[in-house]
Amino acid sequence: MTECSQSQFPFEAHFSRQVMGRFDGSQLTTDGGGLLLRQADRKIGLLQRVTACFTDHRRRERVEHELHQMLAQRIYGLALGYEDLNDHEQLREDPLLALLAGKREITEPLAGKSTLNRMELTPAGCALAERYHKITYSAEAIDALLVEIFLEAHRKPPTEIVLDLDATDTPLHGRQEGRFFHGYYNHYCYLPLYVFCGDHLLCARLRPSNQDPSAGSPEEVARIVAQIRKRWPKVRIVLRADSGFCRQELMAWCETHAVDYVFGFARNQRLRRIARAMREARQEHRRTGKPARVFTEFFYRTRASWSRARRVVAKAEQIEGKENPRYVVTSLAPEQGPAQRLYEQLYCARGEMENRIKEQLSLFSDRLSTETLRANQLRLYFSSLAYVLVHALRRIGLRGTEWAEAQAETIRLKLLKIAARVRVTARRIWVCYSGAYPWKHLFTAAWSALRC
């Protein structure tokens, strides 16, 4: 192969001056804002506790890359926009990523793609019998950590919290374990379950797609509620989800454990009892020419699947050219949630969870291309932890600023992807940013908030 010996790259002149390019600059990085992520991590103690969820069976005298460094490298990499392990063949030489990962000498390379891949592929059980894959993780410990960070984010117990449940599809393009074709999404996919409370991620559970959207949700909710109530015994908890979670098992569990719920309810012929409300909506639509809503409620019980009658709130809506009825089933009494307020203010607010799921995708939660379900669950955890880190930067560092509600991708693009020169002296590591950086005031505000 011919080696390029070109050392200077002339470009079109700029007026009377020549424009020359050379690869002889000092150490540079494109992720200078990553230091703010490091400060956010110090505030919540995330990576230190994530490391405690793993067990390293490697022989200490042969270890070159410490476990905490590899985990930090992987999670920071996702937060900074590097989705693939192959990216780390170049990133391992980045001095700033070495600083973020906790490498003592930042001029030394970090772990390469093969080392990181071995960490992800460790099977369940004892890793001592494995020759190459000697790092394993506890899913239970990571699950508990996600809820613990949510609890710690509150200075005092709230009176009420709303837990949002939703499932989404993760398309698959290989023959991964647990791969099934899903008729609704029309492709092979996984069907991960997410649980959020506001912007806080409490659960990210990877599941095969050959099952009901609510599969496993009672167990996940029971685990999360138990951990929350251990810290906040008096908090009122409301579950909120679409009609895919309107199942007898989940509703019965809520009723037994004093947890309220508001679930979407798929329409059927027996629910056409709202004919009177629909007539009123049509009349109002004809009178005003605008979409019209009339709310009503009744108690309803299925013929076989439900164990009891439950309150159903119906929205009878007439829009241009068609009827648009919607239903929700709830454990809340009318005095706790009048029909219109319950639907428009409580139930419809669940649409905000769609934005949270989009943020997971911007942190590459769909990059599940390894072979086993367990290894792909670990990749989903890494994306979830990267989200927790970015969210900590947003809720602590950017609180009260114009980016307080910015999406993770926006924060990455404008605040983290900053070009900088890295210079190491005997006493300091200098990370020098451009004086022309346009959002210096927001960088300063985040740094000040995270420093406190």
Describe, in plain words, how this protein is organized in 3D.
The structure is a single chain. With 452 residues, the protein is α+β, with helices and mostly antiparallel strands. Helices cover 37% and strands 21% of the residues. The chain is built from 15 helices and 19 strands. Strand 15 (310-319) and strand 16 form a beta hairpin. Helix 1 packs across helix 13, helix 3 packs across helix 5 (95-101) and helix 3 (67-79) crosses helix 13. It is globular. The N and C termini lie far apart (55 Å). 37% of the residues are buried.
Helix tally equals 15
Tell me about the largest β-sheet. Answer: 9 strands, mixed
Shape: globular
Could you give the count of β-strands? Answer: 19
Approximate helicity band: 25-40%
Radius of gyration: 26 Å
- Unreliable stretches: none
- Backbone structural class: alpha+beta
Topology:
Layout: E1 9-14, E2 17-21, E3 28-29, H1 34-44, H2 46-51, E4 54-56, H3 67-79, H4 88-91, H5 95-101, H6 113-120, E5 135-137, H7 139-152, E6 160-167, E7 170-171, E8 180-182, E9 187-190, E10 193-197, E11 200-205, H8 217-231, E12 236-241, H9 248-256, E13 260-264, H10 275-288, E14 292-300, E15 310-319, E16 322-323, E17 326-330, H11 339-347, H12 352-362, H13 373-397, H14 408-416, E18 420-424, E19 429-433, H15 440-451
Parallel strand pairs: 6-12, 12-13
Antiparallel strand pairs: 1-2, 3-18, 4-5, 6-10, 7-9, 8-9, 10-11, 13-17, 14-15, 15-16, 15-17, 18-19
Helix pairs in contact: 1-13, 1-15, 3-5, 3-13, 7-8
